[in-house]
Every structure is written in C-alpha cells, then in structure tokens.
Amino acid sequence: MSPTRPYARTLTACLALGLLAPLLSACTRDGDDVTLRVLASPELADVQPLLGRLEEDTGVRLEMDYKATADLAGARNPAYDLAWPASDRSYLLRLRDSGGGAARPESTAIMRSPVVVGLTPETADTLRDRVPGGRLSWADIADAAADGTVRFGMADPRASDTGRAALVGVATAAAGTGSALREQDVSCDRLRGFRSGQTLTAAGSRDLIDTYVRQPGRADALIAHESELLSLNATDRLRAPLEIVHPEDGMVLSDFPLLLLDTRQRPAYRKVVDWLLRTDTQRELTRLTWRRPVNQDVTPAPPLRAAVGNALSFPDRLSIVERLVADYGDPARRTTDQVVFLLDFSGSMRGPRIAALRAAFADLSGADPTSTGKFARFYRGERLTVVRFGGRVLEERTVTVRDDRDLRTLGDTVADGGFGDATAVWSALAHGYRLAADAVREEPRRPVSVVLMTDGENNAGIGYEEFLRRYRALGPEVREVPTFPVHFGEADAAALRKAADVTGGRMVDAGRSSLSEAFKEIRGCR
C-alpha cells in the first residue's frame, strides 16, 4: 500500500466531516496557530468568554491588553498587532495630523452603542416633570446639573473613549448647530454648568461603574455607553435599575472597530473579522454585551430595537477635540468660576434698555427655556459679583450661587438699583480689576473673568490710557483675567474692542441680537 494513502483517506474524512460540521475547527483551519496582541478598551472585557471559541474556530488567539486610552496612545508600539477601542476617531485624527505619512490602518466596525444617560428612577421622574412632553435632552441634563438636581458620573475624557464621546456629544448639543463642532464652537466653554454636576469620574467607564455601585449616594446619574448601562441593569448590583435616556439632541455612536496595526498579520486579522461578523457570533455578542449588531441579519434584543435617533458627528480636526478636552480639564478637580459684571446704570439706560438688562439676568438665572439658555445659565458654586456704575460705583454685590435665593439676590441688585448721571467706563473697569486681583489672591486656581456692559462713551473718571497704565502694573496672574465687553447702544465699539484685545477677551455686539444673547455668548469664555 502506498504510504500516502492513509494520509489521503484521513484528509478525505476530515473534509467530509468539515462539510457536515463546520465548527470542527481542526478541519477548517489552515496554517499554523497565531497569537495576536491587542490593545483593547477595558469595556471589551465582556467579550472574553467568546475568545476561546474564536481560537478554536480560527486558530487565532487574541491576547488582550485592556487599557483606558482615548486616542489609542501606544497603539504604534510594535508589540501590538491589533487595536480594539470603543472608537478610533481621535486616533485617526492624530494619525492624520502626525505628519509622519503613516497609512490609515484597516478598520472594521464590530458592534455599535450610543453614549447615553442613566438616571435613578426618582431623578428621571423629577426631570421629566420639568420638561414639556418629558423627552429629555443634553440641555435638560446640563440645566439640572447647573441647579444641583443632577449629580452625575462620567469617565475622564482625557483617558477614556467613552468620556470623550460623551463630552463631544454634550458640546455639540451646546453649540446648537446640528453639525460637527467647529473651532468657533469651543471658543467659549458652554459646559461649566454641566461640569458643575459631575461628582464621580474614573480613567474608564468600567471603573466608574464599579465606583458608583460601591458609593451610590455620590451620584444619581451615569453617562456611559448604552450597553454598559443595560449590562449593569441586568445584574443585581443596583437597588433599582437606571432609567436609560437617549437625549433628544443627539448622541455620539461608538462602533467598536477592530484595527489592523501590523499589516503582516492581515490573513489572521481577516479570519478574526470574518468570525466576529458571522451571524451566530453577532447574536452571541449582542446577548453578552448588550451592544447593537452590525450584521443586519441579526435581530437585536428588545431593549436595542428602538432606533438610536440623531447620531452626532465627531469633529474632523484633532485641535478641536484637544481644545475641548483641555477646557473641560480634570473632572476630579472641582472648579467654579468667578465673574465680575460691570453694568452701566447711567441715565441713558433707563426704560427699555434697563428692562433688557434685567431680562438678560433673569434668563441667566434659569428663566430661559431654550437649549442655549440651559447651557449658559448661572450654576451652583459659581461666584458672581455685580457692580452697578454711573460716574462712580453705585453698588456692589457678590453672591456664591447655592440656590434660587442667591439668584434672586442678584436679580434684585439689577432690578432695584438707581441710576447715575455720567458714564465712567474706565474707572469701572479699573475697579473690576481690583476685585479680580482680590479673587486671584483668595483662590489662585479659580477662573476669573470680567464682563463690562455699557451703552455709552466714557465721560467721567479716568481715561483709557490711565486704565491701561494701571492694568499693566498688575501682577501677571491678574493680567491673565480677560475682559468681555458687551457693546450696547451708543458705546464706543473701537475703545471696547481695544480693552478686549489687551486683556485677552472678546467684544460682543448686543446690537446684533439682544443683551440676553450677548451675555449667553460670553458665558465661561476663556
């Protein structure tokens, strides 16, 4: 008998078995087994139970290195063959801007999940009662965070895909353009009120959820992927399941792509991708992870059958993302602003103009029901100083916002004050910087800004050159405090613009819209 015949009979039998039972991987695999090292999002620890079957069926073993990283820092380390993040958007933007000519890696979406909000039932009921129709938006969450109704947990945008996607979603909603963020949309940070409600954070959302479960009293909301919140609700770790809210103004959708970093491993990569996209695998991934399948032949579980809704676009420039993350800062460090409002109460402000000013402060105190109004309002912990001036300082009042009573005190200062008989613009601004110097000395890390609103030209007190001399004599920390002039009525626009330029601020023209819109535009500007 030929020595090759036993081998031939064995091969024929194996092929026949392969036709009858495709899952017998010994007959379907070709080539040597391969181990691929993968830089993976910690969220993907929930796919671990399937990796043994992947290896059995394909001969490819995935060695997962779970690290929280928002832009795949370390992905170009030659030790990694693949990357599997929640999103590759920041990484691809960084790759494009690196100037190294690196090719864009092959990438395949594996699963999808939007970044949403999970609310305790009591908090959800409270918020829905405040919103006509009960359909909540990011603006409603920001509004509730600003007034202390919502305390939320969110992963650190500097380190986490999920945290960054959440921040981009909120900022896109705050911009109100309906499109991807542009540079000008983050020139003024509208997220201070939203940020004031953050009481929990972690490098990744898995650690965030673990912290929330251990200390549920520290927050009544979590911002995370829909899949993570559904997975949490499916356990017995909570007193009551979180109510999952898909914000009306849109969500950023993560597609958990698998990226090929080492092109020499393309054959093994294709095996892994084909296996992950198989109908049976997608069905099991959905069951295990609560993520939405990308395979259209798979029917999602009932909680996933509703449409995602408005999917928000990610910025197309890395500089926009980096600026947004830098503006938000360290979420573990509580930060509140101090704003000094210098308000012209000269005689020319009588009548409709003072009514417009009072309406603007009412809007900033929570009366404005619009989306932009909710993002721009005064927030809990913010320190506010109102200085009424005419030919001299008429009144000065400072409050730290704790509740509506503080806002009413501020409103009364604007509503009930009398008027002066002149307009000392530069004396008022010099007074504002004396207050700013005190604030910087008292709390060096607190961001301070000055808002100067006038409807006329300077006709009393010191002149611009004298103000400039006094400003330049200030310490460097105080000179970092910007002034945002609000041009109104017959004010000298050129002079106000000079003051903005020299202090690092920006002038806003209320004549083009309204005082309310002008004040909203400069809220939190840096």
Automatic annotation (TrEMBL):
Signal peptide range: none
InterPro entries for the chain: VWF_A (IPR002035), vWFA_dom_sf (IPR036465)
SMART domains with a match to the protein in the record: VWA
Top-level taxonomic group: Bacteria
Pfam families (alphabetical): SBP_bac_11 (PF13531), VWA (PF00092)
Coiled coil: none
Name used for this protein in its record: von Willebrand factor
Organism for this UniProt entry: Streptomyces lincolnensis
